């Protein structure tokens, strides 16, 4: 299944992919697509954390949400899907709400790369602080609700984000920790629509 990948990168680089241990926090709109991409790109060791089960309202924007997965824990659905794509992948699952207090040095130690696709500000900030100290690679997803233009997404330093209320809140919390303002994040330049209820269009996550 990796033949097309190996036409683009070397065997040595692909071995790095296969030996990288990933932690993915959140399996919603953003996290689900990240998970799918990791599995199809040849990563073999992925730990996923999410407390939720799939609901019908997830069907419009979450790749792991199917009529057959409604009511299933997201981590279980992810594990089953991964095995159908690549039987060699190992998925470790934690069905729980990750708390900032859970993010200890020992907890993060096994992972080479952390993907933050959750919406908990305290968890995001704690990850940034811990990963900076431990020299762990981290990318954090900012908000994508109330937006319709995927072309406005970019990967930037936290300090360079704009038009994102979530990113603004995190910047304010970290205003005296300048090194953390250089954390890589995925953020949209699009000004979100102002409305009481959150809307999400599939193409943005």
Provide an overview of this structure.
The chain is globular. Helix 4 (74-85) links the parallel strand 2 (45-49) and strand 3. With 205 residues, it is α/β, with parallel strands linked by helices. The protein has a seven-stranded mixed β-sheet with strand order 3-2-1-4-5-7-6, sandwiched between helices. It has seven helices and seven strands, in the order ααβαβαβαβαββαβ.
Distance between the first and last residues' Cα: 26 Å
Largest sheet: 7 strands, mixed
Low-confidence spans: pLDDT under 50, at least 5 residues?
A: none
Give the number of helices: 7
Task: Please tell me what the overall shape is.
Answer: globular
Task: Estimate percent helicity.
Answer: 25-40%
Secondary-structure content class:
alpha/beta
Tally the beta strands.
7
> What radius of gyration results from the CA coordinates?
17 Å
The spatial strand order of the largest sheet comes to 3-2-1-4-5-7-6
Strand content: 15-25%
Q: What is the N-to-C order of secondary-structure elements (H for helix, E for strand)?
A: HHEHEHEHEHEEHE
Mean pLDDT across the residues is 96
């Amino acid at each position: 299944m990796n033949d097309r990948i190996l036409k683009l990168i070397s065997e040595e680089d692909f071995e790095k992919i296969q030996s990288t241990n990933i932690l993915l926090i959140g399996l919603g709109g953003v996290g689900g697509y990240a998970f799918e991409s990791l599995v199809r790109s040849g990563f073999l060791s992925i730990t996923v954390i999410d407390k939720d089960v799939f609901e019908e309202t997830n069907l419009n924007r979450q790749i792991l949400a199917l009529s057959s997965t409604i009511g299933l824990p997201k981590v279980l659905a992810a594990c089953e899907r991964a095995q159908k794509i690549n039987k060699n992948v190992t998925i470790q699952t934690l069905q729980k709400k990750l708390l900032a207090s859970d993010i200890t040095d020992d907890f993060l130690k096994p992972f080479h790369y952390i993907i933050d696709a959750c919406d908990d500000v305290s968890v995001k900030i704690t990850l940034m602080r811990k990963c900076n100290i431990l020299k762990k690679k981290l990318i954090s997803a900012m908000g994508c609700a109330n937006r319709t233009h995927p072309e406005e997404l970019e990967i930037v330093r936290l300090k360079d984000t704009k038009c994102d209320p979530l990113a603004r809140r995190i910047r304010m919390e970290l205003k005296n920790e300048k090194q953390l303002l250089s954390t890589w994040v995925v953020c949209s330049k699009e000004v979100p629509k102002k409305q009481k209820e959150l809307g999400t269009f599939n193409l943005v996550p």
